[in-house]
Amino acid sequence: MPITKRRISMNGKTNLNIWLLVWVLFLLQAGRAAVGVTIYVPADFNSIQAAIDAAASYVDEIEVAPGTYNEAINFNDKAVRLYSSGGPDVTIIDANGITGAYHVVQCVSDMAPVLEGFTITGGNANGLVYPDDCGGGMYNKYSSPTVTNCIFTGNSAVYGGGGMYNEESNPTVTNCVFIDNVTTGAGGGMGNEYRSTPSMMDCNFISNTANRGGGMYNYESDPSVNNCTFNDNTANDGGGMLNERCDPTVTNCKFSGNEADNGGGMLNQSYSDPKVTNCTFSNNTANNGGGGMFNERSSPTVTYCTFSVNESSDGGGMLNQSDSRPTVTNCKFNENEATKGGGMLNSDRSVPTVTNCTFSSNTASNSGGGIYNHDSQLRLRNCTLTANTAFIGGGIFNHRDPSILINCILWGDTPDEFYDTGTSSELDYCDIQGGWSGVGGNNIDADPCFVNVSSGDLRLSTPASPCVDAGDSTMLLVGKIYLDLDGKHRYVDIDSIDDTGYGPLEFLDIGAYEFNCNYTAGDSNCDGVVDFKDLGILCNNWLAGAGQEL
User: Fold this and answer.
1) Residues with Cβ within 8 Å of residue 430, at least 6 apart in sequence
2) Phi (first) and psi of residue 537, to 5 degrees
3) How far apart are CA 512 and CA 490, in angstroms?
4) 405: CB partners within 8 A, 6+ apart
5) From CA 305, how far away is CA 277, in angstroms rounded?
6) Please, how many CA atoms are within 13 Å of residue 385, restricted to the half-sphere of its CB?
């Protein structure tokens, strides 16, 4: 049989070559995607927007040279890093005069672009419909941009968020300045609404203006605000910050020189429960109420804060009304002024719990130099009130509902310490100048021996103070560490002083400060030596709550 020669087709080889070429091109593109490129403005593109449009998400970066760029930009679903080479002072994005440019910067997607080192100005969100009426400087929706080292200034909006507006967004904003932004609505510097959770760090809100929330407005949003300042902002409600139906966390912040009709520094309303820690409220003004802070139907937790030199008609330092239940711990209220309630005013069924706080040198032209309490149930424990003045009720003015004071010092207030209109307020284990003949017991009338009232040092100066080892500790929880206003523990027992207090820690001191001998750590009895006596005191303290004794 003859052998038939088979012709070999080249199609298979050709197809293989094509696939190899496609694969090489793919790898080249993947390599570009993995490494990314830097696009330069204006070297590669004349405008920032053109560079954004040409960039690849997640990998490409856009570097912008110093200059003023008269445009509005939109990240358009691009997760790119947009940064300046010279910083915000010399790199400006200005949308002034651009028709239809309601926002200088837009980010409307689930992407997470980066904006770094620009001045954002000239935004005018004056549109008739949403979203053209909010976010003059920057408008974010469904997005999580990172914004660093930027200045938002000279922007405006009708509805809210003159500098920046966030809706259902979670931006990270660091080292930014919001200055001279305006809205006729809410949030002159920034407006956060509808489940937004921005993270703010080292930012300044200065001289912003709004109807509500001059510096920042939060509605149903829980921002984290750390190491930020709110200075000289103005609003009808909430000069520095207004929180409505939300629970923000505010830590290490300063509120100073802000003005409003209600809540010069901060206004919390409509069941807002913010956590405010280690903040200062100073030189804020409210025409109506709450120079430093105004709480309405809200229950903030306020810890290690200082309220000083604030001014208002009602509640110079703080105003609590309409069923508010704030928890105020380890705070100072000093040199605040009001018509009623220089340091604090409580009204309309509020139930504030105030522990380890001082009220000193506050003034009320009418009543309640330190605290004015009306139709509210004040709970005051281990607090010190001194050098407060008023026409009546220099320390505390109480009307309609009884207050309960335990382990408190009321001394040196003018013209009186506690003016009560017959509400059966109860004082127990308190040191009150002039004595107390009302409900309660185990009160004393003796000089507490402050270190220096004129300089504001209200610590006890000597172990011989009648307030040392004389408090009631029955309400203290087992196993919990209790600290005084200085952050020092309450478990100090002075051997040379008889324990006249009551409860498992019958050596608890009266007032905001536990007497501390300032000897070596562990010297529980303040005899200058750390020995087995101190160990015995430590063990007794450890077992006291369980009803045991060493």
Assistant:
1) 405, 406, 407, 408, 409, 410, 436, 440, 443, 444, 510
2) -65, -45
3) 10
4) 380, 381, 383, 425, 426, 427, 428, 430, 440
5) 6
6) 36
- DSSP class of residue 477 equals P
Cis peptide before 131 (omega within 30 of 0): yes
In angstroms, the first-to-last Cα distance of the chain is: 114
Which of 541, 538, 540 is closest to 523 using CA atoms?
538
Amino acid, res. 433? Q
Instruction: Tell me the sheet residues that pair with 360.
Output: 334, 386
Q: Which residue has the tokens 């053109």?
A: 50
DSSP output for 393-443: -SSEEEESS--EEES-EE-S-BS-SEEESS---EEES-EETT---SEEE--
pLDDT tens, position by position, 413-460:
999 999 999 889 999 999 999 999 999 999 999 999 999 999 999 999
Residue 87 has pLDDT above 90, yes or no: yes
Location of structure tokens 């020669």: 5
- The closest of 425, 422, 443 to 434, measured between CA atoms, is 443
Query: Distance (Å, rounded) from C-alpha 70 to C-alpha 94?
Result: 5
Residue 212 has pLDDT above 80, yes or no: yes
Strand partners, 227: none
Return the closest-CA partner of residue 247 out of 227, 276, 226.
Answer: 276
Contact (Cβ atoms closer than 8 angstroms) between residue 102 and residue 123: yes
Checking 530-535 for CB contacts under 8 A at 24+ apart, the result is 533/495
| Residue appearing with tokens 């952050």 | 487
C-alpha–C-alpha distance, residues 493 and 284, integer Å: 41
**What is the structure's pLDDT at 115?**
98
Angle of CA points 374, 379, 384, to nearest 5° = 100
Q: What is the chain's Cα-based Rg?
A: 31
pLDDT tens figures, 243-267: 999 999 999 999 999 999 999 999 9
Distance CA 21, CA 337 (A): 80
Distance CA 127, CA 132 (A): 5
Residue 339 belongs to what H/E stretch? strand 337-340
Asked if residue 230 lies in contact with residue 257, where contact means CB atoms within 8 angstroms, the answer is no
Tokens 């000597």 sit on residue = 462
Q: How far apart are CA 469 and CA 467, in angstroms?
A: 6
Q: What is the pLDDT of residue 535?
A: 65
Tokens of 153: 């200034």
Judge residue 331's burial from the number of C-beta atoms within 10 Å of its C-beta, 0-12 exposed, 13-18 middle, 19 or more buried: buried
CA proximity to 397, closest of 415, 373, 414: 373
pTM above 0.70, yes or no: yes
Quote the distance between the C-alpha of residue 396 and its chain's center: 28
Instruction: Label each residue of 105-139 as H, E or C.
Output: EEEECCCCCEEECCEEECCEECCCCCCCCECCCEE
- Angle CA 428–332–508, to nearest 5: 35
Question: Of 166, 177, 167, 162, nearest to 125 (Cα)?
Answer: 162
Report residue 300 as tokens.
């903030």
Q: Which residue has the tokens 């939300």?
A: 246
Domain spans in the chain, listed from the N-terminal domain onward: 36-132+141-249, 253-445
